[in-house]
Amino acid sequence: MRNWPLFGLRVTTPRLELRFPSLDDLDALAGLAAEGVHDPGVMPFLFAWTDAEPGERARSTVAFHFRQWGAWTPEKWSCSFVTVVDGEVVGTQEIGATDFAVTRQVDTGSWIGRRFQGRGIGTEMRAAVLHLAFAGLGAGHALSGAFADNLASLGVSRKLGYVPDGVEIRSRRGEAAELRRLRLARDAWTARDDIAIHGLEPCLPLFGADRTAESR
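The chain above was modelled as a monomer; its predicted structure follows.
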């Protein structure tokens, strides 16, 4: 689509594809949300959207993406890809930034359907979006964060070279919980030659990355 080139944006690795979702992709992702994302006894998210009933989780998943699309500006954007393995949507990987042209800093977040967890997909999809951030957009830093008891997310960050960046105490289901911030600098990032970005060039102005891209 000429006026919304993000629909052509993809990042591919030997194991998976990140792509800007179609309506069919969102429907598949909503189905995964309805099935469940985590053990109900824990809460890995700052906003407890997964506490809703299955049907509401599905609808809110679609609405969340529509809100992101409608609010997108080069100064403040959030891009949530669907993660596709062997032709099947298995989860979502988000990357976002505020004033990226100035800060050259991005945040990431993700979730995977429960039946696809434990296969190393989380590490691979984070590696893919970091390639987009550093090799594609010219980012200087990537940020992440996880509650202290979210060992899976913290483990992914550790594997990819993130370092501690402080802690916060946040309210989670009405109780105090420690959130650990993490940071990966471009100089500490390990590039891979088996990850490819497709359709990025026409999207660069939407990311506020046209200026930073010139310095790559």
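Residues 12 and 112 are 17 Å apart (CA to CA).
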